Amino acid sequence: MKKVLALLLALAMICACFAACGDNSGSSSSSQESSSSQSEASKEESSEESGAESSETATGEKFKIGILAPAVTHGWVAGVAYHAKARCEELSDTVDYKLLTSNNAEEMTNQIDELKTWGVQAVVAFPQWEGMEDPIKELVDAGIPVVNFDIVIDVDGVYHVAGDNVDMGTQSAQYIVDKIGTTGKVVVLEVPSSGSVSELRKKGFDDKIKEIAPDMEIEYYSTKFTRDDGLKDFADVLNANSQIDAVFSMDDETSIGVLQAIDEAKRTDIKVVTGGGGCQEYFKMMPENQDIWIQSALYSPDMVKDAVDMAVSLLKGETVDKEKIIPTTVVDRENCADYLDESSPY
Fold first, then answer.
1. What is the CATH number of the domain that holds 181?
2. Which of 46, 120, 136, 248 is most buried, taking the most CB atoms under 10 A from its CB?
3. At what angle do helices 165-180 and 196-212 cross, to 10 degrees?
């Protein structure tokens, strides 16, 4: 009997021991899972933070854009540099820029080398000099997008932004007919020294006049895109013509000279003087002269903002048309207030 009791007691002790071991094993497993879960959560959190930091870094990178323009401090050309700088500063969150101005092709070529050293990623070029084809081609060959503003650079792969010279002539012809009717005498002030600019504006004007006012009398005279030449040349035109109904001038500054000649000659027969460009001084003259309709077919230097935008789009990998021609806007006394900019150099 004693042997049986001893055996039962031994079995009970063995069972209790196994039960205790089972409890310790379960506790250990639970602890390991909790530790593993915390470790995974920590890894995921760390990964998310790393991803967020990487995203912020990518977002914080700025595109490096170079602006090349002539070194002119006034007039239409100066307005180009002014508006290019203004647009880059508007895009300062995404754009870092260098604006370099030059007096000749050699200086602009050296500036291209300077931009390369800086690490430029895209260039907006407004060259007024001959001989820029090879330096521009080197940029294109290096994989650096070039957006050419206004004057065409004959290099494959270059993008182009400009106004519509033909449409400027078309709109001016329509404006004159709207104001004086389909008959009368119109003096056309062409500017042979400007090459295709004058030719295209004249083409637009002539084609439209033939279409809507074939009986209009047209007289052609040559001048230049300056107010001094406008004054001098139009004084001679006034002496040669006792009656003029309208003047198709292609440039705002030329037109300022024309208006001075009309005022000095005390002529009251001229009812319309057109212009082109977007000169602030010319805009201010529009409401001051109620006896003459003063018009400007905009070819504004602020179009260069579109060239800057195109460069940014290219760097973002967006699809961009090779050429953007900006339609003409007509400004006269009825809407000139909308185009005044006291800080503009033009």
1. 3.40.50.2300
2. 248
3. 40
DSSP per residue, 241-269: -S---EEEES-HHHHHHHHHHHHHHT---
Would you say 294 and 282 are in contact if contact means Cβ atoms under 8 Å apart? Answer: yes
Whole domain around residue 309: which residue ranges?
A: 63-163+302-325
- Report yes or no on 229 lying in a domain: yes
DSSP 236: H
Structure tokens at 118: 């800086």
98 and 67 in contact (C-beta within 8 Å)? yes
Sign of torsion, CA 100 104 108 111?
negative
Q: Is the dihedral of CA 177, 182, 185, 191 positive or negative?
A: positive
In contact, 79 and 86? CB cutoff 8 Å:
no
Candidates 250, 255, 328; CA nearest to 293 is 255
| pTM for this entry | 0.72
Beta-bridge mates of residue 99: 67
Across all residues in the chain, what is the average pLDDT? Answer: 85
The answer to whether 202 and 190 have CB atoms below 8 angstroms apart is yes
Domain count, the chain: 2
Residues 157 and 275 placed together within one structural domain of the fold? no
Reported as a single tens digit per residue, the pLDDT across 35-93 is 333 444 443 443 333 333 322 224 568 999 999 998 886 688 888 999 999 999 999 99
